[in-house]
Amino acid sequence: MVQVHIVGVALDSRGQPLILLKPIDAVPGVGLVLPIWIGAQEATSILIAVEGNEAPRPLSHDLMKTLMETLHASVERVEITRIDDGTFYAELTLHTREGVIVLDCRPSDAIAIAARTEASIWVNDGVLEEAGIAEESTVTDASGTGGETADAPDEEERVADFRRFLDEVDPEDFQG
After folding, report:
1. Of 60, 68, 71, 160, which has the most beta carbons under 10 Å away?
2. CB 31 within 8 A of CB 135
3. Number of structural domains the chain divides into
4. How far is the C-alpha of 173 from the C-alpha of 41, rounded, in Å?
């Protein structure tokens, strides 16, 4: 398992929202980013939590957090466990008075809850290898003026491949 953080919420070329996750120990501009397509409501919920804002009325994920607090349960961690035919699967690990409980969960819901509870988010190594994409990389030139160059020709090609992928992918292939 690799611990990740939320890089952001973005829209693909068709206007479909996706969440971007990146290993926490990765160097900026280098490594893999995991895109997971999510629903618009979940994207809004995650954005609100990540930005530290509150909705005028509690959203479903706010209600889930309140329910857990009321029942003296806490979120230990969220895990993106597998990908099967383009569908991501996740688990929500709760610490309760009765012990640890692991719940099957959509990744979008798990991430929205993690964003509210500051729980750690983990991704199975195989999932990151299978569905992760190379993060676009820039390097400051020797003069320090910020000239942009790719790390290597292979990196440029992977970024171009990812851009083509985003243009051609069907979000339903990655329902979270």
Report:
1. 68
2. yes
3. 1
4. 19
